Task: structure prediction
Amino acid sequence: MSNYFSRKISSFHGRETPEEGFLAGHAMLIELLEKEYGKTVPLPDQLAIVTGKHQRYNTDLWQVFTTRHKPNDNIAGHLAFALKYEGIELYILKVLFLQIGEGPVLHMVNKEPTSQYARRVWFLYEWLLDKRLDLPDLKTGSYVELVNPKLQYPGPPRNSTRHRIKNNLPGNFEFCPLIRRTVKLERYITMDLHQKLTVGLSTLDKELVRRTAAFLMLKDSKASFEIEGEIPPNIRARNWGKAIGQAGKKPLTIREIERLQHLVIGSRQLKDMGLRTGEGFIGEHDRKTFLPIPDHISARAKDLSSLLRGLIETNKQLQKSNFDPVLASAIIAFGFVFIHPLSDGNGRIHRYLIHHILAEMGFAGREMIFPVSAAILDRIADYQNILESFSGPRLELIEWKTTSDHNIEIQNETADLYRYFDLTRQAEFLYECIEDTIDRIIPEEIDYLQKYDRMIQFINHYATLPDTKADLLIKFLLQNKGILPKRKREKEFAELTIEVIYIIEQAYTKIFVEV
Result:
């Protein structure tokens, strides 16, 4: 086993290292799992390497450490290194613990019972495997935080007196994604976008804010359907927009998720509504053989109860804490869509949950809805990439066969793939969308409505038209770059003279086009 620890490498799983060196921490544990036990796990976004030089630096894919950081050539050394410099990777740790057994953990704790890293490994072993080791409770020593807040965002702490550990995982045994602390996320959090939005809206007329919110609810609803490649009837889009407007008012439960599915699906009810009773995947079928070609494989039906119970409890736990609302919404919303518990409607409910968490945690005031789906639609390629960054690596770990109805049947245990994962990319993406919504989409809509009101007043001064017809006139001008087409002029607006139409066109240009 020791040759794994002493081998220098220049690439790992297709990732070239910045320079030749030794794998450390999680990378070394992954190598050990593969070579010694034949187990594969999803790679973290960033891995660690120790080089012979004396320069400590990071790249997008690697943390580069110096020789003085090199851990001892054993499992305990690399576990301690990972916890100290990289944070916690729950899925990797669980797979490792299942393979190595309790021996190395017992040895680590017995050798240094008060070591913070030994205690954290001990706690994680018992917590992940739901197994009590033959070790006495600690009676002395100060409490140590399980999640290092300098590396990852912690949840509210709960003391474990047995290990003298503050369990500040932002989740529970059944569902616990983690988010790394990055420069990008720290910048967003310190920007205090919530305060920026609140101050901006407080200067506006309340009726204008109300109308803006009403339009944005419909805009978000339509964008959410468009992301799914669907153009719903207007009444269905409006109904879903109203549901979005109620986000944050009802607690998140299984029943609420099923209610939302009925709203989003509409009158075309599926054969099996509610939580899936069979397996599911996103993808296509081969045109000749009809074999499934999955892009994403959903959690097994038999695991849904546990996974959703964990997700709902995690939501309750984060609601009661000072956890960042955008990070919380990333955990719950993306966790939901990765589990994919329904036969249809998962994507739209996933985006609804973003609104729900932000509203529930007070990030978004009741008077304004975030058209986050519109921001996502504008970044659809990036959105698809971050979904793929989760799904792609896990496809290789799921064993399945084709069923007679051209679905899939999962052959191995997969629940932990949907319990324990890193959500840093998704959290950064969501913050980008929130920033764009506050800085561009909401101000653009407010600006449009202000110009619209000025245009209505101008039209009413020169012509007597019903409100609906004045609205139609503005929409025609908007569609045709400020010119009312001859056919529209002769058919819908025959009562207006050419001179009046020209004056209105000129006004449109001044109000909507000229800065």
About this structure: Residues 240 and 264 are 6 Å apart (CA to CA). The mean pLDDT is 90. Residues 2-100 form one domain. The chain has three domains: 2-100, 186-440, 463-513.
